[in-house]
Amino acid sequence: MSFEPLVSDFYSYEAELLSDQEREAIAKLRAWLEADVKPIIGGYWERAEFPTQVMKPLADLDVIRFAWDETKPFENSSVFRGFVALELSRVDASVSTFVGVQNGLAAGSISVAGSQEQKDEWLPKLASCEVIGAFGLTEPLSGSDSARGLRTTARREGDEWVLNGQKRWIGNATFSDITIIWAKDEADGQVKGFIVPTSTPGYQATKIEGKISLRPVQNADITLTDVRVPESLRLQNANSFRDTAAVLRATRAEVAWSAVGTAIGAYENALAYTKEREQFGQPIASHQLIQEHLVNSLGNITASLAMVVRASQLQDAGKLRDEHSALAKAYATSRMRETVAWAREACGGNGIVLDHHVARFFADAEALYSYEGTREMNTLIVGRAITGEAAFV
């Protein structure tokens, strides 16, 4: 399948940095997204339903295994995985979020903190979507302060652990088969991770209704009431919040890529609209102020793409630090927020209806702006790195 560069990749990062094999994989993914996801996703967004029929094709395209699969050097790079996240978000951020949870957070937790036996058992099932995963860290009263403020507890009783507490905003959780639950060990006060089958007695997930952003993502409130899991389902290499942070470090960088993809989706659809929409006897793309919006959008996209590319290159080199991911996430989501607003404005009144797709990107940007670390928290992570002073409280 031939590879056609994105018009929004103004400095040709994709064409220059990816191998022939990687560009072919992107071309296949793009063709499927354009043919099978873009035409239907607006209806699912409006109904707040997730298109479960996309799961098997995503697995067949090997999208789910990219984050953890061991490959030869320079294959399956972080840069390539970033372009996959960008491509998914360029068509729909909710589908991209599903992959991020399934692949980066659920499978990533097992890959980073699981034993070899746990990896062998669960990672192939997650890759094929035979098992759907979720990631339970955020709580009703604990978001940005998860490192210290977790209230969900774990108490060991013999060969079992008893979990009690609540989680909130847990993606995939209304239909997941397992959820990675992070809880504080009552004995030593350290955060530990558990693979919790959602059929376990005492586990309850309730869909969060009334969202205005990422509506197809099935976020849930989770209640854990004396949920018993065996020691064999405790992530054997998760011994403190540092291990949780190791998962988030990699996924935060991919959220930055998703922000770039969301900005591109809004920009490309707005650009197409302005070429077709006529006012005063000519396409509005010929109007100076419309061109200003488009050029400003392209500038934001290009600058953000440069940043996320470099962050992923650092990740491939084993040099990515928390502050690198934090700056990329804070900057890319801020520029995304500006870009989707300009795209909406360029479309006028038609920018607030789903017909032209821009409204969906405009609304979805708000969720990406906040999850995987708010702009404020990521700013403070970078601020600590450059000043040596922690200003979190």
Structural account:
- By secondary structure, the protein is α+β, with helices and mostly antiparallel strands.
- The protein has three domains: 13-127, Acyl-CoA dehydrogenase/oxidase, N-terminal domain (Butyryl-Coa Dehydrogenase, subunit A, domain 1, Orthogonal Bundle); 133-239, Butyryl-CoA Dehydrogenase, subunit A, domain 2 (Beta Barrel), CATH 2.40.110; 242-387, Butyryl-CoA Dehydrogenase, subunit A, domain 3 (Up-down Bundle), CATH 1.20.140.10.
- It has helices at 13-17, 20-47, 55-60, 78-91, 93-113, 116-127, 146-149, 241-276, 288-316, 322-346, 358-370, 375-387; strands at 133-136, 153-157, 160-170, 178-185, 191-197, 203-207, 220-230, 278-279, 282-283.
- Strands 1, 2, 3, 4, 5, 6 and 7 form a seven-stranded mixed sheet that branches. A two-stranded antiparallel ribbon has the order 8-9.
- Helix 2 runs parallel beside helix 4 (78-91) and helix 5 runs antiparallel to helix 8.
